[in-house]
Design a protein that fits this description.
The chain is mainly α. The chain has one domain. 50% of the residues lie in helices and 8% in strands. The chain is built from six helices and four strands. The strands form two sheets. A two-stranded antiparallel ribbon has the order 1-2. A two-stranded antiparallel ribbon has the order 3-4. The longest helix is centred in the N-terminal third of the chain and has 26 residues. The radius of gyration is 28 Å and the shape is elongated.
Length: 165
């Protein structure tokens, strides 16, 4: 008994396609924010506290009967308002969303170098404290983003953060 020859299989002899390569972890890298954009955002954040300081000085400073300068409750209320608003903006908002009002206006974010996510209020506070290091040697740390590959200040390097667009 003889069998008929096998039918021609159109897929015979073809090699299966190669599997896709493994995707990289995390989000795609974002562009680093320029020094000018960072400076502009810092200025906007600073301007937010100006009305509170003006209230403190205008309403809080006075003179006594002898013409000597005095300070009243409005001074302390104005300064407290400036600290609360600035703290909310620079520590809470920056920690939770990565953006202060100034950064949001200029389209940049503060993120962790390791995760690409906002850093939390505590780390945002520590980063602001670390800016003392930026100011130690003639403020060179503030200028460091002009030539650093990741555009980081010394404080960014200490806390391991990036400012991205």
């Amino acid at each position: 008994m003889s069998y008929p020859p096998p039918a021609n299989d159109p897929y015979q002899g073809q090699v299966p396609p190669q599997p896709y390569g493994q995707s990289p972890y995390g989000q795609p890298a974002a562009a680093y924010a320029s020094w000018g954009t960072r400076f502009g955002a810092y200025l906007v954040d600073g301007l937010i506290t100006v009305p509170f300081v003006i209230i403190a000085v205008v309403l809080g400073m006075g003179t006594d009967d002898a013409g000597l300068p005095t300070i009243n409750a409005f001074y302390y209320i104005g300064i407290l308002g400036a600290v609360v608003v600035s703290g909310y903006n620079r520590w809470f908002l920056a920690g939770k969303t990565g953006q202060t009002w100034g950064r949001k206006a200029l389209g940049i974010r503060l993120v962790s170098e390791a995760t690409g996510q906002p850093i939390g209020a505590g780390n945002a506070f520590v980063r602001d404290l670390a800016h003392i290091v930026d100011s130690l040697a003639c403020y060179i740390g503030w200028l460091f983003p002009l030539w650093d590959a990741k555009k980081q200040t010394f404080a960014d390097k200490i806390v391991k953060t990036l400012v991205v667009r």
